[in-house]
Amino acid sequence: MKLTIVAATGGIGRQMLDQALAAGHDVTAVVRSPGRLPGGVRAVIADLAAADPAALESAVAGADAVLSGLGPRSRADAGIASRGTRAIAAAMSAAGARRLVVVSAAPIGTVASPARPHPPRHDPGDAFWMRHVLSHVAKALFRAHYADLALMEDIVRDSGLDWTIVRPPRLSDKPLTGTYRTAYGQNLPGGWIVPRADVAHYMLRAAAQPDTIKQVVGIAS
Ligand SMILES: NC(=O)c1ccc[n+]([C@@H]2O[C@H](COP(=O)([O-])OP(=O)(O)OC[C@H]3O[C@@H](n4cnc5c(N)ncnc54)[C@H](OP(=O)(O)O)[C@@H]3O)[C@@H](O)[C@H]2O)c1
Q: Average pLDDT in the 75-84 region?
């Protein structure tokens, strides 16, 4: 497949890049630091906080799928998930690319956003501790980031593209297992953690699976 991988120097992004190259896909990487890519990878340089629309359109034109591991590396990147994803979706619409797979986070189904001001109080997949303790702690700690991801999800749902939103819980740097669980429209019971490599593996798989279009997918080990 012809794939465009956004944020290919990030944790999930680099895993998607390495796995896509190993599988023989034709990859374009959208990154702000091309020096951190392996040699020979086609790169489009873009700071997605203020991306040049023409550069982004050239990066996604002709792509069978655009996969994004975009998220804030530090406080300086606050708001980047929504801002950058808006720019990517606009570039895809302009260039006629349709398939978009993005990473969000497990708690976002219960986070209010402009398009979903009254989300459900609980995710149906969350068990007692997640529901009543951990999700509240995480939401207090990551309030601004989760608001950015919830807005990103609004933008993706409203994009008119063939989208898939993947919601992992805590990420680890453990190696690929390929034995993760997924569920449409909910988190996974007891799903506390998942390797970045497994999330990347699923995002690549989902890109080629039409039944994941317009689905929010929970994933966990
Ligand atoms: N950490 C967790 O446990 C957890 C759990 C659930 C969900 N998530 C979500 O999953 C996302 C991905 O996780 P990760 O560990 O792969 O994140 P990461 O390693 O921090 O990667 C974020 C990527 O976004 C890129 N980026 C940030 N600002 C940018 C900008 N202005 N222009 C262009 N690129 C920009 C970074 O580029 P550089 O490489 O150049 O810095 C990096 O490639 C997180 O951001 C979060 O929203 C995280």
A: 94
Note the Cα 63 to chain centre separation in Å.
17
C-alpha 77 – ligand 1 centre gap (Å): 9
The tens digit of pLDDT for each residue in 97-132 reads 999 999 999 999 999 999 999 999 999 998 888 888
Q: Is the CB of 14 under 6 A from ligand 1?
A: no
CB of 158 closer than 6 angstroms to any ligand 1 atom: no
Radius of gyration of the chain (CA): 16
- H helices of the chain, where? 11-22, 53-60, 80-95, 128-129, 135-141, 143-157, 196-207
Q: What does the alpha-carbon distance between residue 123 and residue 108 come to, in Å, rounded to a whole number?
A: 9
Q: Is the minimum distance from the CB of 195 to ligand 1 under 6 angstroms?
A: no
| Rounded Cα distance, 218 and 213, in Å | 14
Q: Is the CB of 55 under 6 A from ligand 1?
A: no
| Digit-coded pLDDT (tens) for 186-209 | 999 999 999 999 999 999 999 999
Answer yes or no: is the C-beta of 29 below 6 A from any ligand 1 atom.
no
Closest-CA residue to 153 (of 89, 76, 61, 96): 89
- Its pTM stands at 0.97
CA of residue 13 to ligand 1 center, whole Å:
8
